[in-house]
Amino acid sequence: AGQKGGINCTCSFMKCTGTVCFSLGSSRQVLTQTITDSRSKYEACGDDCPGCLTYRWVHSGSAMYFNAPWNNNHTHGVPPMEDACGPRISVALLCA
């Protein structure tokens, strides 16, 4: 089953092999976290283990690639910045 363009869209796309997020504008930190739940291939190191948290800087012109195996074992997001910063846009491209 391919992806759909929207709830009322009749077009369909090829099965997606991954997503590339291309960043334009001000630099931001991206937070990735290893998932340690039952669907992940990783096990928690202890009862209170949240998984590995990693911050990476994404600058204008940077890209990140995500695929199903990575998404099944990690979360990702752009946390709010404490200091003032300029605008940024992230362009998501589906890879078929």
Structure description:
With 96 residues, this protein is mainly β. 4% of the residues lie in helices and 39% in strands. It is built from one helix and six strands; from the N terminus they run ββββαββ. The protein has one helix at residues 68-71, and strands at 18-25, 28-34, 53-58, 63-66, 74-77, 88-95. It has a three-stranded antiparallel β-sheet. Strands 3-2-5 form a three-stranded antiparallel β-sheet, with no helix packed on it. The mean pLDDT is 86.
What are the defining features of this structure?
mainly beta; 3-stranded antiparallel beta sheet; single chain; 96 residues
In short:
The protein has one helix at 68-71, and strands at residues 18-25, 28-34, 53-58, 63-66, 74-77, 88-95.
Radius of gyration: 16 Å
Number of helices: 1
Taken from the alpha-carbon principal axes, the silhouette is flat
- Measured as a percent range, the helix fraction is under 10%
Strand order of the largest sheet: 4-1-6
Strand content: 35-45%
Q: SSE order in H/E notation?
A: EEEEHEE
Note the main sheet: 3 strands, antiparallel
Unreliable segments of 5+ consecutive residues? none
Quaternary: single chain
What is the average of the pLDDT values?
86
Number of strands: 6
Secondary-structure content class: mainly beta
End-to-end CA span: 12 Å
